[in-house]
């Protein structure tokens, strides 16, 4: 139950981030709706397609559709107020990332895939909604440029598999891994931690 | 049989619209061909992948491939004449949208999915070929900006499920829903009906 | 064994080409990694998704992941030296294309699809990694504009099916088809062979 609530809060937060990007691009109502839907479901959809789970997750329970619809309507109505909620949204978004990472890993394990593949699936689940959003809006995905986003997912995933080798109960490992994703991302954004620069500094 | 003919006319019309966009972008022969193919099959392909129908529909019957090849060759040869056929093409395109919407809904019902999910599948079938075409050509998909396109698909889909609750024979509902998509789109284009504006009018 | 070695060399060459494009776009470390991964695996992934092979190939053997990781690290470390290896890289890349084409055709035959569909699958396997790379980097795919790339795949595929109608052993046909793709591409690049121009020459 708690699981479902967080999952839906995550989907809603992702949908709202989609609305904000789409409205900046001045898309019409339908465009905003589809971008929100794709941002919220794209990562899980790609994961399910790659694994071969069928049909993809949001087809089996219309609650995802209605949650996203509700979030879009609220976001459009209160778009000006959203600016003051930026921190709350960022927190939802980050919680969503943490949870979606572990959902993806879980689905990989269910399909009996190797740990590195599961970590990739977790990262895809958490991050490809945003990638598809940016492609549809004709931008280079923000995640490829400066966000520490995916690194947090990978760290969380690695932690989970390391913890799984200890005698710690797997339910705890699960929660600890989610917390690692969330805390790492919050710290990275707060202290402007970035990946090591691979380009020669030009002077 | 009639069904197959309309389906193929729809694919041909979509392929031709792909040729026109690709030639505007000055793509080479292969680029034009692939954009045409993707425009004609992309919506149905995404639908089949999401549902998990395998393999995707155009692999099972090479007639789609040959129809598209034929349409591309004709379109390239007669590209100047196509300007005078703009209305005919638009009509084919619109018929294609109506039919593809119901094909998508039908496939959703076969997979025993809920009505709102079926309507999404219908809309995807009718509209994502054009979306993928625009992404490949590095444009923000036109459907997100001004077209009433998807709204027509959704309206038709909703009508179908409303009619299905009446004692009307489902074959009639099917045809009526297709007509609604077609008529609504024709009227919307003729009378410049657009979605309600969600942006503050700047003065 | 030889098969696996060439397959992995191909993946490595594709990954390196991804690194080069991504670094030109100044993506961060993760961006470079994902572009490399997508370039190396995108074609085969799309093929598996369209056929409905599940899960997609690189999930079943982590060697692909580690090969790509290794190639990316080497490519980033030696990016300046890579300029002098351009010919070697091009050769790897071309070998990769030849092999990937036949791998795709083989997978189509296993799924009992018609020859033209198999040829499409071969071409997708060999070329869509590059297409997805270009879409993610917000470019019109280079393959749609000037490369003779896909034409080589199609020619190789057609040759394979023509040879299969002769009494020649299918193992030979397989190798001959790969050679045709490779030789045709090398010649096309060397002699600047392009597809026939479909646009009126403006003066």
TrEMBL record, chains A, B, C:
Coiled coil: none annotated. It is a multi-pass membrane protein. InterPro entries: Gly_transporter. Keywords: Cell membrane, Membrane, Transmembrane, Transmembrane helix. The chain crosses the membrane at residues 6-23, 30-50, 56-77, 89-107, 113-136, 148-165, 171-193. Residues 5-78, 91-164 form the Glycine transporter domain. The keyword Transcription does not apply. The keyword DNA-binding does not apply. It is found in: Cell membrane. It comes from the Bacteria. PANTHER family: INNER MEMBRANE PROTEIN, UPF0126 INNER MEMBRANE PROTEIN YADS-RELATED. Belongs to the UPF0126 family. This is Trimeric intracellular cation channel family protein. It comes from Maribacter aquimaris.
């Amino acid at each position: 139950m708690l699981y479902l609530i967080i999952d839906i809060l995550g989907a809603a937060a992702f949908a709202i981030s989609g609305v904000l990007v789409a409205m900046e691009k001045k898309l019409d109502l339908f465009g905003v709706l589809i971008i929100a839907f794709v941002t919220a479901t794209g990562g899980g959809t790609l994961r399910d397609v790659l694994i071969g789970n069928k049909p993809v997750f949001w087809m089996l329970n219309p609650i995802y559709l209605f949650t996203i619809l509700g979030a879009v309507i609220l976001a459009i109505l209160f778009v000006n107020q959203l600016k003051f909620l930026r921190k709350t949204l960022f927190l939802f978004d980050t919680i969503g990332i943490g949870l979606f990472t572990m959902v993806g890993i879980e689905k990989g394990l269910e399909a009996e895939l190797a740990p590195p593949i599961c970590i990739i699936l977790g990262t895809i689940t958490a991050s490809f909604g945003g990638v598809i959003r940016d492609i549809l809006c004709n931008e280079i995905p923000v995640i490829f440029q400066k966000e520490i986003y995916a690194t947090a997912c990978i760290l969380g995933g690695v932690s989970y598999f390391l913890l799984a080798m200890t005698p710690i109960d797997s339910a705890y490992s699960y929660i600890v891994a989610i917390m690692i994703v969330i805390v790492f991302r919050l710290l990275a954004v707060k202290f402007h931690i970035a990946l090591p620069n691979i380009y020669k500094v030009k002077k």
